[in-house]
Design goal:
The protein is α/β, with parallel strands linked by helices. It is about 50% helix and about 10% strand. The chain has 3 domains: about 280 residues, TIM Barrel, CATH 3.20.20; about 120 residues, Orthogonal Bundle (Cyclin A, domain 1); about 50 residues. It is built from 22 helices and 8 strands. It has an 8-stranded parallel β-barrel with strand order 1-2-3-4-5-6-7-8, surrounded by 6 helices. Helix 1 runs parallel beside helix 15, helix 6 runs parallel beside helix 7 and helix 16 crosses helix 17. The radius of gyration is 22 Å and the shape is globular. The protein binds cobalt (II) ion (CO). The site of cobalt (II) ion has 4 residues, from loops.
């Protein structure tokens, strides 16, 4: 039996370890080598990369995608798409979702891993449909979590629902790294018995369970796993690619991976890692094994965000309290899986509850929108007391929220005028208005500086 490997070093791995601060220039020179390693796919875009490119790295995320595609010609490129949220933190109208998918496909994306934070699949239908229309691979994604409402049967039903939607594969996304080897075995076995399409598993090493969980998933027949090259593996990132290859091949499983190429890739990332350790962006805290997550169910990205948030407020010493508040907020909100944007909403609300000293005295706009039903259906019962702290019954959303949203693309395009040079720019702006605008301004500045420089040079 063959096990497929997805490499996450330039997306989830660096998102989880260094809050997506790796510029394109840090990995440009290894892209052709990554293409030779024998990966099933290279996860390289989506998630927080889009936001981070515009906000911190002064990079056009679309240009990054095109540049990666130009160098990675054989290995399919993979992205993580938040369904109706695309890459932002709220729902967008269907036309925006469709155009975003189409433009991503045109710019080089091959595999669209599409999820909804609440597993409300009405919120991924449009993105899946458009991916299929573009002739690309739609991977329906189930966010894994444990709660009284998340049973094996419920997951099997979700798998069936996704298969019926027409996706080519299913991924179980264990963003918190809380899936135990036993749970993985039972869940993958159940899914393999229930659906015909390939099943992938995504986990993190946060709690130390990762490699064992993958091994049991492979024994249960999982088709592919997500790993990170060893220098960027472990902790809140994925289990190491080389380690999983070694262990699985020793047990008689096939992989398409080439050890010599993997070594080159890993050597390349050693100084990159050293740089981020030295400048403090890579905090050794996130590299360790944190078994607390088995209790708090806090995913890698969320854990590093919580640490950063508390540090910036000089309240790092309240981390334990904030972590203890997370499961309580989660119960009140109907057991949402802790994945973006729900993980941030729950995290910020938990920190606020702790720092303010009174629960729900301050409620963020996002949590208010969630309570109104703008994010979809929660898996469990949402606290009615909490809902009615903010909304009356008449104000609550009925049906699929995106259907109530007016088209915005043409209007935004007209408003932006020359500032936007392409439809891609308009989409960047729709997803992140303020940061995209700043990015456009900086881009203008940079280019006018370049022109001046050239003129001066000519006069020499
Ligand atoms: Co992840």
């Amino acid at each position: 039996m063959k096990v497929k490997f997805t490499e996450t070093v330039i997306r989830d791995s660096q998102q989880s370890l260094i809050a997506t601060r790796m510029p394109y220039s840090d990995f440009e020179d290894i892209l052709e080598t990554l293409d030779e390693a024998g990966y099933y796919s290279l996860e390289c875009w989506g998630g927080a990369t889009f936001d981070s490119c515009l906000r911190y790295l002064d990079e056009d995320p679309w240009e990054r995608l095109r540049k990666i595609k130009a160098k990675v010609k054989k290995t399919p490129l993979q992205m993580l798409l938040r369904g109706q949220n695309i890459l932002g933190y709220k729902h967008y109208p269907d036309e925006v979702v469709r155009l975003f998918v189409r433009k991503s496909a045109e710019n080089g994306m091959d595999i669209f891993r599409i999820f909804d934070a609440l597993n409300d699949f009405r919120n991924i239908e449009v993105a899946v449909d458009e991916t299929l229309k573009c002739g690309k691979h739609a991977q329906g994604c189930i966010c894994y979590t444990t709660s009284p409402v998340h049973t094996l049967e419920k997951y099997a039903e979700m798998g069936k629902e996704l298969e019926a939607m027409g996706v080519q594969s299913v991924c179980i996304k264990d963003m918190a790294g809380i899936m135990s080897p036993d749970e993985a075995y039972k869940l993958i076995k159940k899914l393999k018995e229930t659906i015909k399409i390939p099943v992938f598993l995504h986990t993190h090493s946060t709690t130390g369970l990762g490699p064992m969980t993958y091994l049991k998933a492979v024994e249960a027949g999982v088709d592919g796993i997500d790993c990170a090259i060893s220098n960027f593996s472990g902790g809140t990132s994925q289990p190491a690619t080389e380690t999983m290859k070694y262990a699985l091949e020793g047990l008689g499983y096939e992989t398409d991976l080439d050890s010599k190429v993997l070594k080159k890739i890993n050597d390349f990332f050693a100084p990159v890692k050293a740089k981020f350790l030295e400048n403090g962006i890579l905090d050794p805290y996130v590299m360790g094994t944190k078994t607390d997550a088995l209790v708090y169910q806090v995913p890698g990205g969320m854990l590093s965000n919580l640490v950063n948030q508390l540090k910036s407020m000089n309240a790092y010493d309240r981390l334990d309290e904030a972590l203890a508040e997370v499961p309580k907020v989660r119960k009140d909100m109907g057991y949402p899986p802790l994945v973006t944007p729900l993980s941030q909403m729950v995290g910020v609300q938990a920190v606020t509850n702790v720092l303010v000293g009174e629960r729900y005295k301050n409620i963020s706009a996002e949590v208010k929108a969630f309570l109104r039903g703008e994010y979809g259906r929660a898996p469990g019962e949402v606290s009615q007391d909490l809902i009615h702290k903010v909304w009356t019954d008449d104000e609550l959303v009925k049906g699929r929220y995106a259907e109530s949203l007016e088209p915005v693309f043409e209007k935004t395009k007209a408003e932006l005028g020359k500032k936007a040079r392409s439809d891609e720019d308009v989409l960047s702006y729709i997803a992140f208005p303020q940061i995209a605008e700043k990015f456009f301004e900086k881009r203008e500045e940079k280019e006018s500086n370049t022109v001046n420089y050239t003129i001066e040079k000519k006069e020499d």
